[in-house]
Write a structure and sequence with these properties.
The structure is a homodimer. In chain A, about 40% of the residues lie in helices and about 15% in strands. Chain A has 13 helices and eleven strands. Chain A has a seven-stranded mixed sheet, with helices on both faces. In chain A, strands 8-9-11-10 form a four-stranded antiparallel sheet, with helices on one face. In chain A, helix 4 packs antiparallel against helix 11 (about 320-355) and helix 6 crosses helix 10 (about 285-290).
Amino acid sequence: MSETFREDGALAVDWVASYLERVRELPVLSQVEPGDIRRALPVSPPDEPEPFSAVLADLDSILAPGLTHWQSPRFFAYFATTGSEPGVLAELLIAGLNQVGILWRTSPALQELEELTVDWLRQLSGLPEGFHGHIEDTASTGVLAAVIAARALRPDRPLLVVSEHAHSVGEKAARLLDLELQKVPTDDEFRMKPDLMRVDEACAVVATIGTTGMASIDPVPEIADRCSAAGTWLHVDAAYAGSAAILPELRSHFRGWERADSIGVNPHKWLGVPVDCSVLWTRRHEDFRNAFSLVPEYLRSPDDALNLSEVSIPLGRRFRALKLWAVLRCYGRVGLQERLREHLRLAELFEGWVRAEPGWDVVAPRHFSLVCFRLDASDEDNERLLERANDSGEIFLSHARLDGRYVLRLAIGNFRTTEDDVTLAWNVLRREAAAL
Amino acid sequence: MSETFREDGALAVDWVASYLERVRELPVLSQVEPGDIRRALPVSPPDEPEPFSAVLADLDSILAPGLTHWQSPRFFAYFATTGSEPGVLAELLIAGLNQVGILWRTSPALQELEELTVDWLRQLSGLPEGFHGHIEDTASTGVLAAVIAARALRPDRPLLVVSEHAHSVGEKAARLLDLELQKVPTDDEFRMKPDLMRVDEACAVVATIGTTGMASIDPVPEIADRCSAAGTWLHVDAAYAGSAAILPELRSHFRGWERADSIGVNPHKWLGVPVDCSVLWTRRHEDFRNAFSLVPEYLRSPDDALNLSEVSIPLGRRFRALKLWAVLRCYGRVGLQERLREHLRLAELFEGWVRAEPGWDVVAPRHFSLVCFRLDASDEDNERLLERANDSGEIFLSHARLDGRYVLRLAIGNFRTTEDDVTLAWNVLRREAAAL
């Protein structure tokens, strides 16, 4: 099999390389209709083996139109991401090794590299010692896990507190765990009002640094004061913006997060790691272990090492640390900082263009690489504007609702995005606005 | 960057190819001590970028001793797995494309291929139409999700019923969801006794086809009768053995599973797909959607397609369907059946050797590719025997406890395992037994 593997591997590497070379020119948002892709594929699986090249051929001819190009430098929707080259190749190694982290001994390298790389990221982010971390698939799972740990400590407080602008993962966690949810109102800069939190009744509060809608920043120091006084678990969700903590000049946005009981940051959002890689740090490692640890007989082993399966929902885990390691090494602190600073510069530039243009408004303070703006027109016009821009295939943006108004979001976060790409986005938006 | 990517990609493919060529000769179970790997790595991340080749070099010189070789044909512990060649290369494509399945439109190809491939597997497994499926990371998450859906239907029944030999995921789900757990006693063939289930009080029952300890088979038809009469959700956990449903001659082991409300099977265990890939089928798709769906404003889109994030815990998902697709196509039904039949033949062979050897006993009925056996000696001697065999590095087996006794487990499931590897295992075990 291994000669075939080398040949097929060369084809696969070449396929990805060519894809990355031409992705800028592809329609960013897939233009197919629901069902188109499935209808083009056989209803039943093949009986006989086919060569890997046949898979690649169908990827090109059948699946490609159904891809929305997250790797495109012109993807500005949600939060833009990058599957960077070292991260992509690390996934090949991860699959080739096929390590399954259940117990320490089922892959000492996986477990110890996971502990090390999340500690590297802690150092880069200016967090103090005492935070231990591990990797979850997504922030949804991380928030759920943190709330589970919190509720195990305070089962008498079946309430979860989040901001009205918090990511829906908080609401989802509350629903899945059968907890009551308080959505706390926000101030004129979309920040949770701490004095309205029912913190004494809550097992946990989720504060956000960089909300999904507009990247607002909850007043974490004051929230931490109140959580601390009430004995309430504080989880800081910094899934998107947390990566920016590697920039010392932005550290003020993170004031107080070192007082959280747990913190989530997604290197698969803004640090070049391919999905999935969501880091969860906690100062309450033992409480996580108490909530999750369950080692049945068939998994007992002679060593007494801590096993990462004792702090997470899944029993087995992939060797995700290897891609975080590859990215941190192949870019280095300096390389990652450079890319994030360039994104901030581009966001500032775009924000300036919007502010300077009559008939357009910036509608939320910009702290990171997300710009929230709208055409000075009806919600319906803004919605049509967005659909027209996205349907053009040239760019892809998404929206949010702020104070009841429909607003457009331009999120910069792809390592391949240049000033030309951002200029294109602005030109497309103005063109489509004029054509409305 | 793309020339570097081609060069680094060639290095990475070559690394994996060489690894797979020599993995049979490597010590199966890592022989390092806790902390060894981490101590050999820098405490802090690098400031400056390093080449990808430096990552590969450290993988060889520092991490390699900390790997337990799940890809080894001499890995017989837990359930043996294979990261097959097409599956490994598909992971490269998955990362290169970096699709994030949140909404249908964020990757129509991801969602539709996921729905299609799990339907292909449904057909291969002889399950009727009406089961819809999606892919979870692991069976732990799948069981948790099924129990969440079940509890949403019957919040008045905070009880989960599992067999005393069920996988610990059931117990974990109950703990995380704050449900009471009933562990139902089993009969002399380790099958749950349906008449002892408190089925009227339960929101869900988890029955297992192929338990982790000894691959026993719960009496699913009778359990389904009782669940049906009581209006209780039945989840069938066939994480390991479910793959064998592609063999018509083993279908009788799966009698009644078509009556389950949900079923979990892990293609990353016995079907050659690299971790993670756990399929969850359900006849109650709408109940899943009711339990999990939550589409916030910033994720609303003009189409009204169902989104896979509406039936799972995580919001975003990887393009795991691509590796399941690659494996199903590159092996075909016939190729996968051949490999599983060979594993069954090898397990039967090993079982015969144990039965024929004085002083050794087979201690559980063998239905699939797992043999449970022990030396006719004390538990302590069996435990020492296992440790000696594993410490030799030649093979890796694990254990279980049956009727209070310590027993050894030989699990065959790696596509590269040959009769010579199984013969070696038997020779090592007899050698170490003689040396006790």
